[in-house]
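Appendix B, example 12.
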Amino acid sequence: MEGAPELLGAVAARMQAIDGVTVDREKMRGFTRRYAGTVSVSTIDRVPDFSQVVSGEWWKPEFQAHGKDDIPLAVAETAAKALNLHIGSAIDWSTPQRTFHSHVAAIHKSEQVRITARIEFFFPPGTLDGLPVIYYGGARVKAEAVPALQKTLYEKFPAVTVINMADVLDIIQSVVDQISLVIRFISAFSILAGAVILASSVAGTRFRRIREVVILKTLGASRNRIAKIFSIEFFVIGGVAGLMGGALAAGFAWAALNRLLDAVTAPDILPVFVAVGGTAVLAVATGWLASYHTLGQKPLEILRDE
């Protein structure tokens, strides 16, 4: 094992009313509806290691809820936003054995990645005494030791369900890889189509470019100078296209990850610069493939045709 296991007990409870208003599933929308059913609650004497208080105040470690009519409650920030809870909000709870009243004393924010159960509602010690508890445990184990640990746990505790999250992550990774493959294929197809369009555009303006070459040569421009002029033109076209594409891709990626998947991401500028540079180089190469022979035109031949 790579660290001490984490163990957390949870009790199934149901919210009956919030600030005196009965919790009605039919009046809830979207993600909030899951709070109309049974939710997992737990007790703890201090702020969990994986959380921090963002509003309110946590109870003291020695606080006990025995005999209290109004019990303090710590709510996760996501649940507080979904249910419009604030410090002082009153919540009535029910379990198969008893009912009790609570008020929101603290709102906490948990880390996004951890191996224990995600509990959004915490009470002081003593609140859930006598109620049936389900324990969730998590441990980080070296990959080569997982089969032996699963076998030992099954032999010693056959009623305990053991889930190897690495297998779950492998399945998720395989799905993500397939999605990435499709995206890469579409991206490659788009790049190829863009190269064809650029080459066609350059080839379509071949006569105009021949006239430009003839005029520049007549004015004394060398072959290398004309090549530099065309290269700068192609480079600017490709750079602008890469900048627009990179900015749009970064914007859509940020919206998908932060808004749809609620993932915490940091801006990564390097791929945008790579996209700008790669697109510029590709534009230069494609442009020259379509207009390379233009530099070989003799000014006198064109002027005679005129």
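The beta strands are 6-18, 21-22, 38-43, 51-56, 70-76, 90-94, 99-110, 121-123, 134-138. The chain has a mean pLDDT of 80.
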